[in-house]
Amino acid sequence: MNILIYLIPLALFMGALGFNAFLWSLKSRQYDDLDGASCRILTDDDDAP
Length: 49
Prior knowledge:
The chain crosses the membrane at residues 6-26. This is Cbb3-type cytochrome oxidase assembly protein CcoS. The chain is mainly alpha-helical. It has one domain. The protein is elongated, with a radius of gyration of 20 Å. The protein has 2 helices and no strands.
């Protein structure tokens, strides 16, 4: 039962860390162009000499 003293704050810290990473990804506009990334792999941009 004494291990809960360590595990509960650790779980809260890890949850807050994941939430902050999610908020950072929203602020850095990672989710703005969801369709562009799926179509970008289909285009051939190689410039052969």
